[in-house]
Amino acid sequence: MLDSNALINTSKDHMQKAIDHLEVELTKIRAGRANPQMLEGLHVDYYGANTPLTQVANISVPDARTLMIQPWEKSMITPIEKAIMAANLGFNPQNDGQVIRINIPTLTEERRKDLVKKTKAEAEHCKVSIRTTRREANEHIKKDGKGMPEDVLKDFEDRIQKMTDHYISIVDKHLTEKEKEIMTI
Hints:
This protein has helices spanning about 5-30, 75-85, 110-145, 150-185; strands spanning about 45, 50, 55-65, 65-70, 95, 100-105. By secondary structure, the chain is an alpha+beta fold. The chain has two domains: about 5-30 and about 110-185, Orthogonal Bundle (Topoisomerase I, Chain A, domain 4), CATH 1.10.132; about 35-105, Gyrase A, domain 2. The strands form two sheets. Strands 3-4-6-5 form a four-stranded antiparallel β-sheet, covered by helices on one side. Helix 1 packs parallel to helix 4 (about 150-185) and helix 3 (about 110-145) packs antiparallel against helix 4 (about 150-185). The longest helix is centred in the last third of the chain and has 36 residues, at about 110-145.
């Protein structure tokens, strides 16, 4: 028997997770302004353990073009610096013995266009995930809805489609905002 509310709620959860993932990925795409999330996912060798940077240092933004990393232990400055260089983020960390400063370079027109392409690819990946959820829900409706009136099944499919359209519009909105942010000098 088809449980429409459970199916709709499960589909909604999957689509929201796709949006949440997109938002995280978009924060990692730098738009010329310093943002601590640029270093999200960066791991440092902390006494032999691969540890997230945020667990060994404080990351702050003193101005729009600078990230400042304050390690909780001075001995961590070199491993943090090495991790930033190894991550190949295009940053050149500067170490003064107390903190590490990263000056965020201004983006060239070519680099901005590359970032827009990357943003569009992330958005498309999210849309594919949302559409896959729709397809799976529709398959579930067809499989478990045998014997149910056709108009009821059609109503379920319409609800899933409206939800899909809603989430796709959210993706488009995020994409437009990020493109504008990247292309603004």
